[in-house]
């Protein structure tokens, strides 16, 4: 899992390195939002999101939205961003619930055990 995360981050750094100066900047191999992006983001365009906290590497709290075309930085206190996050979390839960049925648990009986 850690290796997958590292590889995704390195690909993200390469793909989105050109966005520097537009709100997303690289600092010591960490992708940070330095300011909030303008414009709307539709729920269906968001591939994934991350929560950025304030710290030594990143100066603001933000929600990093990875869309089909770009990386956007959103203010977590904004009402519309909160609504978008609720929809994204609902979508994640629905997807997890659908895929749960694709992988049977170990406690289900095998067909040969049923009489």
UniProtKB/TrEMBL annotation:
Domain of life: Eukaryota
One GO cellular component, as annotated: extracellular space
Domain Chemokine interleukin-8-like: 29-88
Signal peptide positions on this chain: 1-21
UniProt keyword annotations, A-Z: Cytokine, Signal
Listed InterPro entries: Chemokine_b/g/d, Chemokine_IL8-like_dom, Interleukin_8-like_sf
A single MF term (Gene Ontology): chemokine activity
CDD domains per the UniProt record, alphabetical: Chemokine
GO biological process: immune response
Stated name of the protein: Chemokine (C-C motif) ligand 44
């Amino acid at each position: 899992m850690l290796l997958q995360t590292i590889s995704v981050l390195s690909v993200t750094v390469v793909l989105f390195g050109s966005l520097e100066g537009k709100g997303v900047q690289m600092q010591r191999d960490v992708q940070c939002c330095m300011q909030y992006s303008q414009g709307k983001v539709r729920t269906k365009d968001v591939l994934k999101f991350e929560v950025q906290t304030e710290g030594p590497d990143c100066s603001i709290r933000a929600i990093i939205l990875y869309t089909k075309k770009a990386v956007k930085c959103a203010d977590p206190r904004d009402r519309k961003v909160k609504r978008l996050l609720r929809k994204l979390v609902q979508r994640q839960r629905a997807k997890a619930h659908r895929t749960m049925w694709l992988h049977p648990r170990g406690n289900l009986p095998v067909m040969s055990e049923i009489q």
